[in-house]
Design a protein that fits this description.
- The protein is of the alpha/beta class and 141 residues long.
- Helix content is 42%, strand content 21%.
- α5 links the parallel β2 and β3.
- Pfam families: RHH_8.
């Protein structure tokens, strides 16, 4: 089956972020606070973001090779109601594979999502209405 035309993927804007929660032991947390007090970082978040970015840079080549091998869209992929209606009109189904953010417009019905989306694999964040997420639950990996 040929691939349907999909919306273009774009890079995240600098302000786009998702909140995560981590648990740290008191010694690690104390060392972070010490580095913040000494002026190495502006706050705890600054240190943690820097540490994560450094580790991602260390593994950058593996990440890029895996993105290519797994045919992942890197960045943002948004599906509007119009996009999915075009896929349905072409009698095709989508396999959504994204590293970053995949989003489905709020006006997309669960029925339209079920008719057009075969599978969803998102490494990052998946934004859709609760009804669409529920409808696609068995297709999300």
């Amino acid at each position: 089956m040929k691939k349907p035309a999909l919306p273009n993927a774009t890079r995240f804007k600098g302000g786009d972020s998702e909140k995560i929660t981590i648990n740290l032991g008191p010694v690690d947390l104390g060392q972070i606070d010490l580095l913040v007090e000494e002026g190495f970082y502006s706050n705890r978040t600054d240190l943690i973001r820097t540490a994560i970015r450094n580790q991602l840079a260390v593994h950058g080549q593996v990440v890029q090779e895996t993105i290519t091998r797994r045919a992942l869209v890197l960045g943002l992929q948004h599906f509007s109601k119009q996009d999915l209606e075009a896929v349905r009109a072409a009698h095709e189904r989508l396999n959504v594979h994204v590293l970053g953010l995949a989003s489905i417009a709020a006006d997309v019905s669960p029925e339209l999502a079920l008719a057009t989306i075969e599978s969803v694999v998102v490494l990052g964040a998946f934004h859709a209405s609760p009804a669409v997420k529920t409808a696609l639950a068995d297709r999300i990996r």
